[in-house]
């Protein structure tokens, strides 16, 4: 549809909307949140750089190595979709983001972290670089930056030199001074000046030493990429020192980092529980819209009280637009009997509407994902999510990383026909927003119809007991393996009380029976990456036993760590069938009871938790008790108290 048609439609709708009395004008809903995206101070990244500088000096001094050289990192590059020119949404490389906070692609960064006296004051700032171009900051650098201090820790950004037509297609070409001020660094040059600048800053007559980032990520088994520098042969390079030191810096979070992680949790918690009032399900559309049931109008898919929701169908005729006012749901426009736009108005109930009410029998998994994504971006300013959303219902909730390309939150049945959320399903939603690189990772599990069955409550409460027991036990010095085993044991005890497993719990633990029901690790470090690095520091080896080998860390907890607590209990045929065929393990499994849960799926409860000096602090704020979940799904405001629930 071309622009003229869209504009004509807009005018017609505007005329129709205002054709009645003034009090019939379409109202605009207020924002469904109490949060406001905060401005992030770049001091955060300056402090991160200071932290690295001190750690590098300490490490080099302790190993009796000369305290000299430059830390050099390369930022991320913009990527296209395979061979096309379709640019993918850029997100900065995480180590570079940690040190510099730069959101644009194509940058390099350097830190003068070691004991040396800069030659900058002796450099001719009108010197020619790359043949004919002058140094980008010229005398401004000389006046504003003084490198008389030894071990200065000064920072340099190298920006890509953009072509002139960038200004036509992508906007203003910002001068280096903008990046200097925005990112609170000491100097900014162009990337093509990097070699010359680093040589000019070296105190050594020979080759300057560059500490480059190269090391193993123990979650992905991929290696970080060292900076690719032209004329690298003009430098000495060290590929082993920087990675473990910088990784360790990321493990303990600063107050500023914690504030951002808390905000990401606040937005994500709100999105999990505050997305709407209720969902239409099989709702009769009044008047002229009735015939649209024959025109493939999926009216049961529309959330009835998004703050502002427009549902648009393709059309070609721009006449006969009529209007209907629905007291509960807002204003609807029709073109020749077909719904063109539905404008929804929220009924806020005296408080922000609650998310879990959005899930209803008859909806689709991907609809719930889209609502979460809308909320965290619209109201939280979070353009990125920490990871691909997992919106699993029914049997899909037993697929640990559901939501991937082969199962994209699009529950299907026989012959790949669409299947909606069904009465009696359990839902498992694992979704987290990212703000200024820092993420959140939250999982809520609840019954689609708003009421726990006895079987659902059994499994849910088993997981909740493990979740709470771990958080209550967390404090500095506690080993994470012990926390994982505590979660396993707590779940097994609950399953035994229900008759699902039989026999001695300690013997089950020896046989690693808990891994049948919780095959993943208890949690992981969280920060700029969802699975933040540092889980296996140098000298730590991954366990080999079932369940334990899936742990993303086995460290002892330290104050300032942020780690997820995410126990789960799943009924997965790929694990249950071999266990029941095992002559030893099968003795502990009640086949008859387990058969009742074969189509159950699974439950996971996940919170993001800070290790404090004397315990822990839970950043996540979602309904967890079964009565809380049932209450908010029935309409109670969050947070809910028993006294606020109508009998």
Automatic annotation (TrEMBL):
Q: Which Gene Ontology terms cover its molecular function?
A: manganese ion binding; metalloaminopeptidase activity; proline dipeptidase activity
Which coenzymes or cofactors are required?
A: Mn(2+)
List the InterPro entries: Aminopep_P_N, Creatin/AminoP/Spt16_N, Creatinase/aminopeptidase-like, Pept_M24, X-Pro_dipept-like
Entry keywords, A to Z:
Dipeptidase, Hydrolase, Manganese, Metal-binding, Metalloprotease, Protease
Instruction: Answer whether the UniProt record assigns the keyword GTP-binding to this protein.
Output: no
Tell me where in this chain the Aminopeptidase P N-terminal domain is found. 40-221
Pfam families given for it?
AMP_N, Peptidase_M24
Q: Which GO terms describe its biological process?
A: proteolysis
- How does the record describe its quaternary structure? Homodimer.
Tell me its family: Belongs to the peptidase M24B family. Eukaryotic-type prolidase subfamily.
The protein, known as: Xaa-Pro dipeptidase
Question: Which organism's genome codes for this protein?
Answer: Zingiber officinale
């Amino acid at each position: 549809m071309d622009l003229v048609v869209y504009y004509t439609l807009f005018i017609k709708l505007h005329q129709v909307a205002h054709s009645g009395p003034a009090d019939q004008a379409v109202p605009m809903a207020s924002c469904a949140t109490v949060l406001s995206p905060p401005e992030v101070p770049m001091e955060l990244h300056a402090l991160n750089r200071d932290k690295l500088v001190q750690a590098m000096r300490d490490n080099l001094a302790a190993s009796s190595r000369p305290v000299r050289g430059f830390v050099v990192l390369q930022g991320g590059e913009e990527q296209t979709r395979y061979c096309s020119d379709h640019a993918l949404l850029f997100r900065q490389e995480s180590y570079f983001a940690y040190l510099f906070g730069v959101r644009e692609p194509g940058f390099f960064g350097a830190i003068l972290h070691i004991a040396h006296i800069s030659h900058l004051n002796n450099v001719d700032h009108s010197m020619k670089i790359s043949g004919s171009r002058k140094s980008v900051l010229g005398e401004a650098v000389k006046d504003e930056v003084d490198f008389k201090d030894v071990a200065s820790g000064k920072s340099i950004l190298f920006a890509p030199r953009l072509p002139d037509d960038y200004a036509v297609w992508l906007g203003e070409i910002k001068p280096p001074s903008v990046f200097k001020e925005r990112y609170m660094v000491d100097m900014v040059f162009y990337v093509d000046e990097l070699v010359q600048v680093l040589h000019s800053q070296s105190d050594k007559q020979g080759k300057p030493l560059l500490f480059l980032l190269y090391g193993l990520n123990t979650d992905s088994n991929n290696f970080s990429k060292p900076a690719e520098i032209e004329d690298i042969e003009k430098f000495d390079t060290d590929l082993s020192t920087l990675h473990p030191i910088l990784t360790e810096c990321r493990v303990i979070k600063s107050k500023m980092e914690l504030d951002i992680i808390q905000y990401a949790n606040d937005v994500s918690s709100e999105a999990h529980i505050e997305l709407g009032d209720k969902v239409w399900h099989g709702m009769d559309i009044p008047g002229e819209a009735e015939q649209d049931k024959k025109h493939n109008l999926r009216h049961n898919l529309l959330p009835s009280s998004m703050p502002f929701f427009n549902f648009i169908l393709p059309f070609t005729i721009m006449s006969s637009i009529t209007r209907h006012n629905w007291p509960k749901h807002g204003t609807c426009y029709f073109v020749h009997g077909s719904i063109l736009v539905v404008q929804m108005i929220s009924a806020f109930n005296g408080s922000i509407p609650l998310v879990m009410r959005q899930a209803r029998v008859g909806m689709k998994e991907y609809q719930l994902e889209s609502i979460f994504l809308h909320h965290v971006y619209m109201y939280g300013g979070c353009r990125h999510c920490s990871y691909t959303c997992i919106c699993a219902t029914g049997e899909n909730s037993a697929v640990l990383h559901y939501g991937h390309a082969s199962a994209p939150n699009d529950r299907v049945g026989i012959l790949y026909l669409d299947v909606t959320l069904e009465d009696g399903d359990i839902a498992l939603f694992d979704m987290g927003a990212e703000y200024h690189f820092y993420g959140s990772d939250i999982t809520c599990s609840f019954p689609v119809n708003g009421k726990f069955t006895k079987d659902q409550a059994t499994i849910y409460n088993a997981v909740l007991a493990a979740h709470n027991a771990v958080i209550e036990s967390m404090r500095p010095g506690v080993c994470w393996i012990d926390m994982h085993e505590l979660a396993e044991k707590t779940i097994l005890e609950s399953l035994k009380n229900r008759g699902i497993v039989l026999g001695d719990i300690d013997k089950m633990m020896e046989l690693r029976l808990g891994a049948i029901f919780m095959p993943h690790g208890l949690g992981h470090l969280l920060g700029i990456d969802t699975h933040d690095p540092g889980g296996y520091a140098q000298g730590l080896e991954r366990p080999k036993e079932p369940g334990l080998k899936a742990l993303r860390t086995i460290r002892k907890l330290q104050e300032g760590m942020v780690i997820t607590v995410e126990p789960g209990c799943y009924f997965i045929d790929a694990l249950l069938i071999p266990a029941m065929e095992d002559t030893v393990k099968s003795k502990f499994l009640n086949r008859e009871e387990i058969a009742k849960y074969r189509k159950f799926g699974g439950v996971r409860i996940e919170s993001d938790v800070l290790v404090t000096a004397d315990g822990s602090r839970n950043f996540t704020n979602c309904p967890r008790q079964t009565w809380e979940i049932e209450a908010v799904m029935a309409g109670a405001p969050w947070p809910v108290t028993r006294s606020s629930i109508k009998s």
